């Protein structure tokens, strides 16, 4: 451990015991890197963030930032900037005073602190709102002030707890782009908590997936999107995911009733994941001619409209899957819940990677 | 949060209202059924004596209940002039009695039935600092008197003036009991109180008689109230107070014969 | 609120009844006031002396209540230790205790022969009864619960996460308390202080018992009113009106300044 003492950036093992779950998470971030903690509600993402900020005690583990262990330090001495989910701007202070709060606490004089706060407000494009009260701001503006307030303490580590969750869909798009710019300009390590895969994909350099207080997958957004390793991630990125055993060009997966063999193009051996997109699943009323290799009969469990596509949930045996088809196909296939159809996926549409 | 608070306030006020409704106060309606109630307004210093005399009166007059209202003579007199239903008024000072007679609320001339005089009250753990009235003027001594506006204070003022003693009191208390409390707790070194009060508080304070108290003797007049609901009983009660039995009870409590 | 500005009858009727109930005694005072001699009565030195003493002592005791009561409220709202419920109940004791009993209790604790008072006397030569300090102490005793309860409620309702946000910005506990917690509960503190001041201003029983009654030193307006009531009810009415007018004026002014932020 001591060999990392001089390392820059964040290197942490977060351990928090809670009645509902135990959090035990190793987390690292280079200076300038944005790491997203992605996971379902109650997985311990926010607890991890609070542990980093010093708002919950850790019975074990460490938090090293640029070589200094933060764990023994109280929150106010960690130089960690945090943007809270609902921003928590002090309602009794003006926007400028909110941003100047941190510099003041760091010992800056009133005028110096205000000048610094003014610069930050300018950077987030809210210089005109310096004397406004937080309650007069829109959600997006409040988020930017919260960001400016967190950055004004010049933190070595920036923490963002669901920074976009409180915004409506339209504002969200805009603010996400702005946040991406500000994060890119931030020299320290940043950790972002979100349950929205899109936020994570857009904002983060690396994604850490947390389930039940444990790291279950880690990688660049592209890796995570392409090679999900849990059902949760597969659902998030919209892929059919199976675990199985590969042997040459085939993978044997455990279906709902016994095993089922699928043909693939990747040639691996041993424990693997197999993934394919719902859009690559073709559906037929009758057994198709020419017989694609991966063909199976399935029961239609549900038909849901999703945007301009229709998602069809197929129930096993042999295995569960989802398929995306066009509304026109639905009519052609005369799909209804409970009916039985033929489904096929080409070997070239499957993707196999080691488990 | 605001909603919850207001609900709590509402619940509390309803509870209070309910409690108020429950208290119908029907103990005042005991006049019916052949029994009669005699209402006596008497100075607070008469509490023990008159309560005993009331029992005597009740046993001599079966079916009669005597109800007392003890309090400061002034407030009692005010009550009577405002029309409070009293049969007898026994005051601790002729001056307050005068407000009743002046208002035309007295039936007949008030009669002085007893007298009270002042004593010096000192804490039970007597240090011998105070032996006579002139000692009260000593500096460093904490003396409490009744306020000049209440009878015991007026009497104290009169006695001190007659003895040519100047006292700088630490406090001018609202009544004798307050003076006794402070002396009894040893917060004050001395106070001027009625002899009867000192006697009632025997053990808690020590009483020192002083000759100048003769200059400020308090007369206690008693009278039947004009619109007395129980006029006949009122006259009989006044007779009891003025008679031998009344006198014995009063002197036993430390009062003097008029 | 947005539905209708007109209150429903089932609230309006009891509200009006309540208002009448509160205002009626005031009407009684006004009706019986000796208006013709008001001027000469007010000119008497004792009235102004008592008024001044009342205002000064009520303000001082409110100050003491703030100084001690706000931290006490914080402990009640935030700390957790065995016996907290008991402490909370103890804080409300002065509310249920008859003020005269409170006065006696103060004598027994802080009097010349009291638990602590005897030590104060022997060690420092300080005796509290019959002094203006005793008036302030008596008023503080009866008024403090109003402040504590009001501030504790505000602290409980306040969002703790603002304090966490302040901590992440580098604020120590004192800074958090001063710049975040206190401003957030300011309306509660203000309301508590107003209640506290009003209660102190009207304090009678504990004051007369613990501090006694001497013009210029311990005779506050309520004491003056009570003693005047013994032999000069009209003077008592005048004094009451003065107390009432001054307190209403002060409370209204404070409300305007504090409650409308």
Automatic annotation (TrEMBL), chain A:
Entry keyword Mitochondrion: no
Record's keyword terms, sorted: ATP-binding, Cell membrane, Ion transport, Iron, Iron transport, Membrane, Molybdenum, Nucleotide-binding, Transport
Domain ABC transporter, first and last residues per copy: 7-237
SUPFAM superfamilies noted in UniProt: MOP-like (SSF50331), P-loop containing nucleoside triphosphate hydrolases (SSF52540)
UniProt signal peptide: none
Protein name as annotated: ABC transporter ATP-binding protein
UniProt key word Calcium: no
GO molecular function, one term: ATP binding
Top-level taxon of origin: Bacteria
Origin species: Actinomadura violacea
Domain Mop: 289-354
From TrEMBL, chain B:
Pfam annotation, one family: SBP_bac_11
InterPro entries reported in the protein's UniProt record: ModA, ModA/WtpA
Gene3D superfamilies membership: Periplasmic binding protein-like II
Signal peptide per UniProt: 1-17
The UniProt record lists the keyword Zinc-finger: no
Keywords for the protein's UniProt record, in alphabetical order: Metal-binding, Signal
Protein origin, superkingdom: Bacteria
PANTHER family assigned: MOLYBDATE-BINDING PERIPLASMIC PROTEIN (PTHR30632), SULFATE-BINDING PROTEIN (PTHR30632:SF0)
The family this protein is said to belong to: Belongs to the bacterial solute-binding protein ModA family.
Protein name: Molybdate ABC transporter substrate-binding protein
Annotated organism of origin: Actinomadura violacea
UniProtKB/TrEMBL annotation, chain C:
Membrane topology, record value: Multi-pass membrane protein
Record domain ABC transmembrane type-1: where: 51-254
UniProt subcellular location: Cell membrane
Membrane-spanning ranges: 55-77, 89-110, 130-151, 180-200, 235-254
Organism domain of life: Bacteria
SUPFAM superfamilies: MetI-like (SSF161098)
Key words of the record: Cell membrane, Membrane, Molybdenum, Transmembrane, Transmembrane helix, Transport
Summary of the function given for this chain in its UniProt record: Part of the binding-protein-dependent transport system for molybdenum; probably responsible for the translocation of the substrate across the membrane.
Xref: NCBIfam families: Mo_ABC_porter (TIGR01581), modB_ABC (TIGR02141)
Family recorded in the similarity comment: Belongs to the binding-protein-dependent transport system permease family. CysTW subfamily.
Record's protein name: Molybdenum transport system permease
Organism: Actinomadura violacea
Lineage: Bacteria, Bacillati, Actinomycetota, Actinomycetes, Streptosporangiales
């Amino acid at each position: 451990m001591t060999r990392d003492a001089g390392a820059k950036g964040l290197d942490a093992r977060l351990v928090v015991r809670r009645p509902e779950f135990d959090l035990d998470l190793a987390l690292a971030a280079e200076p300038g890197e944005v790491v997203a903690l992605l996971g379902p509600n109650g997985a311990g993402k926010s607890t991890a963030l609070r542990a980093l900020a010093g708002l919950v005690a850790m019975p074990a583990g460490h938090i090293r930032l640029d070589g200094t262990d933060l764990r023994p330090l109280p929150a106010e001495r960690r130089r960690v900037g945090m943007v809270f989910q609902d921003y928590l701007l002090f309602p009794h202070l003006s926007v400028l005073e909110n941003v100047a709060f941190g510099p003041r606490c760091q010992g800056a004089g009133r005028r110096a602190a205000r000048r610094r706060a003014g610069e930050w407000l300018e950077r987030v494009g809210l210089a005109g709102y310096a004397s406004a009260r937080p309650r007069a701001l829109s959600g997006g503006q409040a988020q930017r002030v919260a960001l400016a307030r967190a950055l004004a303490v010049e933190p070595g580590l920036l923490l963002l707890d669901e920074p976009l969750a409180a915004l409506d869909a339209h504002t969200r798009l805009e603010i996400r782009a702005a946040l991406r710019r500000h994060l890119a300009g931030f020299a320290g390590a940043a950790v972002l908590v979100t349950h929205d895969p899109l936020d994570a994909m857009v904002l983060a350099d690396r994604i850490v997936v947390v389930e039940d207080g444990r790291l279950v997958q880690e990688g660049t957004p592209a890796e995570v999107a392409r090679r999900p390793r849990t059902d949760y991630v597969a659902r998030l990125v919209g892929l059919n995911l199976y675990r199985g055993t590969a042997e040459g060009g085939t993978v044997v997966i455990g279906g709902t009733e016994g095993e089922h063999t699928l043909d693939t193009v990747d040639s691996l051996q041993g424990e693997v994941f197999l993934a394919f997109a719902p859009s690559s699943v073709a559906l037929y009323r009758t057994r198709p001619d020419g017989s694609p290799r991966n063909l199976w009969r399935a029961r239609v469990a549900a038909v849901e409209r999703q945007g301009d596509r229709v998602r069809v949930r197929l129930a096993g045996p042999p295995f569960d899957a989802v398929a995306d088809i066009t509304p026109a196909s639905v009519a052609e296939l005369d799909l209804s819940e409970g009916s039985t159809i033929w489904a096929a996926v080409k070997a070239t549409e499957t993707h196999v990677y080691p488990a | 949060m605001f909603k919850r608070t207001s609900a709590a306030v509402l619940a509390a006020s309803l509870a209070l209202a309910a409690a108020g409704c429950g208290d119908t106060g029907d103990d005042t309606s005991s006049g019916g059924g052949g029994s009669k109630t005699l209402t006596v307004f008497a100075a607070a210093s008469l509490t023990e004596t008159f309560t005993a005399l009331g029992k005597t009166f009740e046993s001599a007059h079966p079916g009669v209940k005597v109800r007392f209202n003890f309090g400061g003579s002034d407030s009692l007199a005010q009550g009577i002039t405002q029309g409070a239903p009293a049969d007898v008024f026994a005051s601790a000072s002729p001056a307050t009695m005068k407000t009743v007679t002046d208002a035309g609320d007295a039936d007949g001339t008030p009669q002085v039935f007893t007298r009270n005089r002042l004593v010096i009250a000192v804490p039970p753990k007597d240090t011998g600092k105070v032996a006579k009235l002139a000692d009260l003027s000593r500096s460093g001594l904490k003396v409490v008197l009744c306020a000049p506006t209440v009878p015991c204070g007026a009497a104290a003022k009169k006695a001190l003036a007659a003895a040519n003693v100047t006292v700088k009191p630490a406090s001018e208390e609202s009544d004798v009991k307050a003076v006794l409390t402070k002396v009894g707790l040893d917060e004050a070194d001395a106070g001027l109180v009625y002899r009867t009060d000192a006697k009632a508080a025997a053990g808690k304070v020590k009483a020192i008689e002083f000759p100048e108290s003769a200059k400020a003797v308090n007369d206690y007049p008693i009278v039947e109230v004009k619109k007395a609901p129980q006029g006949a009983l009122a006259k009989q009660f006044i007779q009891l107070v003025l008679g031998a039995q009344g006198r014995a009870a009063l002197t036993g409590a430390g009062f003097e014969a008029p | 609120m947005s539905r209708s500005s007109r209150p429903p009858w089932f609230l309006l009727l009891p509200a009006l009844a309540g208002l009448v109930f509160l205002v009626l005694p005031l009407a009684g005072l006004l009706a019986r006031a000796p208006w013709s001699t008001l001027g000469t009565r007010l000119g008497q030195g004792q009235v102004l002396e008592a008024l001044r003493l009342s205002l000064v002592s009520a303000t001082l005791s409110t100050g003491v209540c703030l100084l001690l009561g706000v931290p006490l409220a914080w402990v009640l709202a935030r700390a957790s230790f065995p016996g907290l419920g008991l402490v909370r109940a103890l804080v409300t004791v002065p509310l249920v205790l008859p003020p005269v009993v409170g006065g006696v209790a103060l004598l027994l604790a802080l009097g010349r022969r009291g638990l602590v008072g005897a030590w104060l006397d022997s060690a420092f030569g300080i005796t509290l009864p019959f002094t203006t300090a005793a008036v302030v102490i008596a008023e503080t005793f009866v008024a403090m619960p109003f402040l504590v309860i009001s501030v504790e409620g505000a602290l409980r309702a306040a969002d703790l996460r603002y304090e966490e946000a302040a901590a992440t910005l580098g604020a120590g506990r004192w800074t958090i308390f001063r710049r975040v917690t206190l401003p957030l509960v300011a309306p509660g503190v203000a309301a508590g202080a107003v209640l506290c001041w009003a209660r102190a201003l009207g304090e009678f029983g504990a004051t007369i018992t613990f501090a006694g009654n001497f013009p210029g030193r311990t005779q506050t307006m309520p004491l003056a009113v009570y003693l005047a009531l013994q032999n000069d009810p009209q003077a008592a009415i005048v004094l009451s009106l003065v107390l009432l007018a001054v307190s209403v004026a002060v409370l209204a002014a404070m409300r305007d300044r504090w409650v409308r932020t």
